[in-house]
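Q: Convert this sequence to structure tokens.
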Amino acid sequence: MIQLSGVTKIYPNGVRALNDVSLRIRKGEFIFLVGPSGAGKTTLMKLLYREEFPTKGQIIFGGKSLVRMRPREIPYLRRSIGMIFQDFRLLPQKTVYENVAFALEVIGASKREIRRAVPAVLEMVGLSDKAGVFPAHLSGGEQQRVCVARAIVNNPVLIIADEPTGNLDPETSWELMKLLDDINLHGTTIIMATHAWDIVNHMKKRVVELVDGRIVRDEEKGVYRHEA
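A:
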């Protein structure tokens, strides 16, 4: 599904965020990206949805080269990817329903499609009774579940989650991980950057560890060794 070959990313200030990274991600995998802050995890994920461009190397996503991708093709790429962030990034002036619907509106979905899809995903994440509520009146866990609903409403082939449990308490974090695991079991590929060693150690998914921009470990059913 995704193949990175010899990918290097050097920022204009000279920082080498990734150094000769090669990685294959199969359809339906659940991968934890681990490693210290500044190891290159976020840069790697930004390359996958073309927010960043590699200095060197090749990235193939679904048979297409992201390096050769034309600017007009990037929105279509991003329609196939759901994003979940640590800081939620919800629109405060929109309700739960409207936040999720917005993800469909920006890709030109019809009102009929929106009316069908949004209630279904809100039910999936357990927020049907919060559809008319604004983000400020939700708990952190509820806000993150809105983010999950927004990420999956387009039926993406890939979900990228950047420290999604970073602002959540332990109980809420586990609820979120159960939800992501269920989504993965239905075939969606998930790549999640995290420092939550307890979650990584319990779930026993594939673990890819980055240090100083290089992959130092790629392990099936792995653990967060540094913290274990």
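The chain has a mean pLDDT of 95.
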